[in-house]
Amino acid sequence: MRKRILAVAAAALLLLSLSAGVLAADPVTIRFYYRSGGTRPDVVRAWIAEFEAQNPDIHVEWEVAASGWQDKLVVAMAAETAPDVVEFWGNFAQQLARKGMLLDLRPYVARDFTEEDISDFFPASWQNVFVQYGEYKGEQYGLPRYINTMANYYNKTMLDNAGLESPRSLAQRGLWNWNTLEQMARKLTRRVDGQVVQRGFMTMTRGWDRMAQWLWEAGGDWFDPNNPTRFIGDQPEAMAALNFLHRNIWEDQIFLKDLDWNAFYNSQVAMTDDGLQVIFNNYDNAIQGKFDWDLTVRAEGPNGRKPWATDDALGIWRGSKHPEEAWRFLKFITSKQGQEIMIRYEGLPPVRRSAASAYLKLDSRFNLAAFVESMAYAQVGITNRVAGDVAAIGTEINNALRSSLVNNQVPPSTAMENVKRVVEAIMRETAQ
Questions:
Q1: 47 & 172 share domain
Q2: Range of the domain at 187
Q3: What is the SS3 assignment for 407?
Q4: Strand 269-275 vs strand 195-202: parallel, antiparallel, or unpaired?
Q5: pLDDT tens digit string along 125-169?
Q6: What is the reported pTM?
Q7: DSSP codes of every residue in 234-303
Q8: Does residue 14 lie within any of the structural domains?
Q9: What's 301's domain CATH number?
Q10: pLDDT at residue 15 above 80?
């Protein structure tokens, strides 16, 4: 009997020692590749601290994505030494996704996300993270990281002094459109001795991704949605948008030729078109109460209001040795709690509707509800829609925009005629 008791006790001790060994095992380490600067260190530290508290079996190491980080990441992926969780957007996102360098998240989403989880993401943001062309078409290469969509900022003090109704008020009455934008810009333009010293409006004319919004709002596009290798930036609808901007920049001189933050900060431009991600870190920090300002939804074009939703996202390297742990971290960052941490430290709009209320409470001085209003109309970004070499095509269209809208070397019609031949040749060689 005594031998039996001793045997049972020994077995129990062995079981306890094995359990202790499991509990004492080192956590799995995953590497998180993310830029620094601004408030990013604060949000990264907060993400990691909270995640590790909830997941003691996982340790997250932050690797700062410094100068040349995109090229370094591609090299690391090729050498099979890349970090587990990485950030990306735009041309770079398409480069990684279309070459199959990112893990397909569809199985993880199917397992862990309900329909309610998926619908909690703003639709355009969610649609942005699927491969549209090539061998990996249909794969989900990431989860949205934050929302950046476009809005109209305006100097309230200048408008009040001119006796003008605010764009926000006009938008509420359904009257904020290209016509009222143009009329207000004309009234807000000032000349001294024949020289323009203050303009009414500006937008980023040198970037094809932001310019796509103007084309959509006029009923056009850069490429035919039904034949994505066909360039239609030279068609009447697209030309209406480009000519509208060119006329107001160069003939009437009531729009500035390109986006220049300092021109708005120094009250040289009354209204601008910019992303929501710069409300606090840029505009608020630079203006510092020198004048009153606010923001609202974009002015409506002939084809409606069609702001661009950027594709900033996070994904997992396909070669990760710890995909399950990486997925748990990625899922946390993009959860309601993770997004609320981001809002608290970075002041960025969240990708989840359930976290929107936290964003709207950040600062009562500004119309942050423009974020939710804009996402009701938001469109998938242009880089996701292009079938060929996104970077090469974007470079050529940007050059055409600079030659026409920014520098006035050629009219928009000539610029589009010239670039059409170039980008369609690139399409023939690279479309997937």
A1: no
A2: 150-309+382-430
A3: coil
A4: parallel
A5: 999 999 999 999 999 999 999 999 999 999 999 999 999 999 999
A6: 0.92
A7: TSHHHHHHHHHHHIIIIIS--B-SS--HHHHHTTSEEEEEEEGGGIIIIIIHHHTTSS-EEEEPPPBBTT
A8: no
A9: 3.40.190.10
A10: no
